[in-house]
């Protein structure tokens, strides 16, 4: 029984108080464990948390000994599991470190810890459809499983002399920090053009990762 589900860190906003909004899970996306979460999977668990007057834990790297803040709101919307939280940057050095990495873009994932209560296997999608999830915690993590899977898929294709699908490459570019326009610029004009036109931290971090993808043997 799996107990983790990882997603790229989709931060909508973060302020100087350590408050942030993002997604702990996105519906309809197949991860490297061949899991797909469907809308409604968290509803029962979230209702139970509301009855308790509490929230799932905000942890660092799934370590139960290292809470780094609190969640102030968690709910399902059309896209996925939307979370609002606050890192305790004034009282916890680890939370302050996590905040700095989140701002810099070097912290790239959110991962949920859960118990799976209901699922089915979809042979056409070759994936487990997660229908009811009992949510325990949502962690900030360095590398989510989806990023690793996509990057490894590209590397394997290149090593085998094949050309990866353009949509897969563009998705990886966006996962590692490029904007949609930057990713499209890379696809149409190449690495050198991207490097010339983009000097922000997110683009430079992405370029470092891109080098490892396309040059590592």
Describe the structure.
By secondary structure, this protein is an alpha+beta fold. It has two domains: 4-143, no CATH class; 147-215, no CATH class. It contains seven helices and nine strands; from the N terminus they run E-E-E-E-H-E-E-E-H-E-E-H-H-H-H-H. The chain has helices spanning 43-52, 93-104, 145-159, 166-175, 180-189, 191-197, 201-215, and strands at 4-8, 10-14, 19-26, 35-37, 57-60, 63-76, 80-87, 109-122, 127-141. Strands 1, 2, 3, 4, 5, 6, 7, 8 and 9 form a nine-stranded mixed beta sheet that branches. Helix 3 packs across helix 4, helix 4 packs across helix 5 and helix 5 (180-189) packs across helix 6. It is globular, with a radius of gyration of 18 Å. The mean pLDDT is 77.
SSE arrangement:
Layout: E1 4-8, E2 10-14, E3 19-26, E4 35-37, H1 43-52, E5 57-60, E6 63-76, E7 80-87, H2 93-104, E8 109-122, E9 127-141, H3 145-159, H4 166-175, H5 180-189, H6 191-197, H7 201-215
Helix pairs in contact: 3-4, 4-5, 5-6
List keywords for this structure.
9 strands; 7 helices; 9-stranded mixed β-sheet; 217 residues; single chain; alpha+beta
Unreliable stretches covering 5 or more consecutive residues: none
> What can be said about the biggest beta sheet?
9 strands, mixed
Helical content (DSSP H or I, runs of 4+): 25-40%
Overall SS class = alpha+beta
Nearest-integer average pLDDT: 77
What is the CA-CA span between the terminal residues?
A: 34 Å
Order of helices and strands: EEEEHEEEHEEHHHHH
**Total beta strands:** 9
Shape annotation:
globular
C-alpha Rg, in Å? 18 Å
Tally of discrete structural domains: 2
- Strand content of the residues, in percent? 35-45%
Number of helices: 7
């Amino acid at each position: 029984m799996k107990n983790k589900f990882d997603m790229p860190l989709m931060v909508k906003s973060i302020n100087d108080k350590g408050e942030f909004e993002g997604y702990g899970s996105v519906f309809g996306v197949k991860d490297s464990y061949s899991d797909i979460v469907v809308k409604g999977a968290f509803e029962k668990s979230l209702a139970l948390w509301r009855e308790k007057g509490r929230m799932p834990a905000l942890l660092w790297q799934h370590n139960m000994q290292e809470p780094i803040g609190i969640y102030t709101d968690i709910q399902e919307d059309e896209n996925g599991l939307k979370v609002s939280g606050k890192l305790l940057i004034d009282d916890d050095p680890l939370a302050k470190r996590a905040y700095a990495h989140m701002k810099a873009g070097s912290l790239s994932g959110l991962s949920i810890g859960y118990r799976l209560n209901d699922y089915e296997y979809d042979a056409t999608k070759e994936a487990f459809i997660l229908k009811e999830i009992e949510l325990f915690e949502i962690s900030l993590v360095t590398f989510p499983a989806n990023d690793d899977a996509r990057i490894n898929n590209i590397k394997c294709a290149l090593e085998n002399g094949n050309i990866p699908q353009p949509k897969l490459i563009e998705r990886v570019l966006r996962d590692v920090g490029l904007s949609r326009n930057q990713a499209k610029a890379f696809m149409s004009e190449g690495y050198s053009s991207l490097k010339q036109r983009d000097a922000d931290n997110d683009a430079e971090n992405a370029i470092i990762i891109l080098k490892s993808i396309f040059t590592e043997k």
